[in-house]
């Protein structure tokens, strides 16, 4: 007996939700139905998916009933509360929050790297990594398979949209307020122009500025984004002792995360071999012709699926280390696409 599974998307009206609905409309239709769910304040809105208008339902137990796969694009507390409810109702949950990523009974999956992890999910939940990890992992995972990764030093340059729609809106307002100011303008002038009420969820003005902080406070001066990038990389690659140091920075870009990466390997590396690996790896595009102005930037990658890799160099003082620059659309590739791919793998488990 065949069964086309029913999908529910919780958090459909958010920034990542818009990208996810686009992806669902572009991919092969494997679903018997798609239900859109959000907070009560968004209930009643109408959104288009696969050419059909869908009315958004408020999140409650009835909204989750009858769904085979439930995809959560929600804050940690919402996922932590409602994902077990969806599982109890018979669904497999794919969660994009941090609520379950490090739970030993929840697989953390990047389909290009560890699809086998999906087979065992004792809690009925599959987690998807954060957007910075998803920018990093397709490229670094491919290089690890060839050379044996031993150490990472990463700096992120994260778009405002990674902190949500309110952060993007705050950046847009700030840019309008400081329009005409020069880059050398005193910090106090920018802060006065923006005001405390114009920061939104950001800890400091982002227009004409960079903010060396992303996430929540963690012990010893680290942020949750920095600790999460380390722990998620270790879990996905199966390297619990991997040395990872990360510094996460918010930059005045609306969409598109970028990373600089220093990766040290067990084996000696060459740029030619690294180019070959990156150019042929799923989920990665190599764009590395700096003499011709060829390297990825957020402007180039918005709206695309892969992680883009460029500026590939062997470290001048270490034949086992590579330097590279990575860039990806944090809403599409960094959140929506990975979760859809996980959900589609789960959907293939149903008899057809």
TrEMBL record:
Pathway: Amino-acid biosynthesis; L-threonine biosynthesis; L-threonine from L-aspartate: step 2/5; Amino-acid biosynthesis; L-methionine biosynthesis via de novo pathway; L-homoserine from L-aspartate: step 2/3; Amino-acid biosynthesis; L-lysine biosynthesis via DAP pathway; (S)-tetrahydrodipicolinate from L-aspartate: step 2/4. Gene3D superfamilies: Dihydrodipicolinate Reductase, domain 2, NAD(P)-binding Rossmann-like Domain. Keywords: Amino-acid biosynthesis, Methionine biosynthesis, NADP, Oxidoreductase, Threonine biosynthesis. It holds the Pfam family Semialdhyde_dhC. It comes from the Bacteria. Residues 6-121 form the Semialdehyde dehydrogenase NAD-binding domain. Its EC number is 1.2.1.11. Coiled coil: none annotated. SUPFAM superfamilies: Glyceraldehyde-3-phosphate dehydrogenase-like, C-terminal domain, NAD(P)-binding Rossmann-fold domains. It catalyses: L-aspartate 4-semialdehyde + phosphate + NADP(+) = 4-phospho-L-aspartate + NADPH + H(+). NCBIfam families: PRK14874.1. Belongs to the aspartate-semialdehyde dehydrogenase family. Homodimer. This is aspartate-semialdehyde dehydrogenase. It comes from Streptomyces yaizuensis. The lineage of its organism: Bacteria, Bacillati, Actinomycetota, Actinomycetes, Kitasatosporales.
């Amino acid at each position: 007996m065949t069964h086309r599974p029913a999908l529910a998307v919780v958090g459909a009206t958010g920034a990542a939700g818009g990208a996810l609905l686009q992806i669902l409309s572009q991919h092969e239709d494997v679903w018997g139905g798609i239900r859109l769910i959000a907070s009560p304040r968004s209930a009643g809105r109408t959104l288009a998916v696969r050419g059909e208008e869908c009315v958004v339902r408020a999140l409650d137990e009835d909204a989750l009933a009858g769904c085979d796969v439930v995809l959560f694009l929600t804050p940690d507390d919402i996922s932590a509360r409602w994902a077990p409810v969806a599982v109890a109702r018979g669904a497999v949950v794919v969660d994009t929050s941090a609520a379950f990523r490090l739970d030993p009974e929840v697989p953390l999956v990047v389909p290009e790297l560890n699809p086998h992890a999906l087979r065992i999910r004792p809690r009925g939940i599959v987690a998807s990594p954060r957007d910075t990890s998803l920018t990093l992992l397709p490229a670094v995972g491919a290089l690890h398979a060839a050379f044996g990764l031993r150490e990472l030093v990463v700096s992120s340059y994260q778009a405002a949209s990674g902190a949500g729609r309110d952060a993007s809106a705050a950046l847009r307002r700030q840019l309008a307020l400081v329009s005409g100011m020069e880059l050398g303008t005193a910090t106090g002038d920018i802060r006065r122009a923006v005001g405390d009420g114009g920061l939104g969820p950001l800890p400091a003005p982002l227009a004409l500025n960079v903010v060396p902080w992303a996430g929540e406070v963690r012990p010893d001066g680290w942020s949750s984004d920095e600790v999460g990038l380390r722990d998620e990389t270790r879990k996905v690659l199966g390297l619990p002792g991997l040395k990872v140091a990360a510094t996460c920075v918010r930059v005045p870009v609306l969409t598109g995360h970028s990373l600089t990466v220093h990766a040290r390997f067990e084996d000696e590396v060459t740029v030619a071999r690294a180019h070959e690996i990156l150019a042929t790896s799923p989920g990665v595009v190599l764009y590395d012709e700096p003499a011709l102005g060829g390297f990825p930037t957020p402007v180039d990658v918005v709206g695309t699926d892969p992680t883009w890799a460029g500026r590939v160099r062997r470290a001048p003082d270490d034949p086992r280390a590579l330097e590279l620059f990575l860039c990806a659309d944090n809403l599409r590739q960094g959140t929506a696409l990975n979760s859809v791919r996980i959900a589609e793998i789960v959907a293939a488990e149903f008899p057809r």
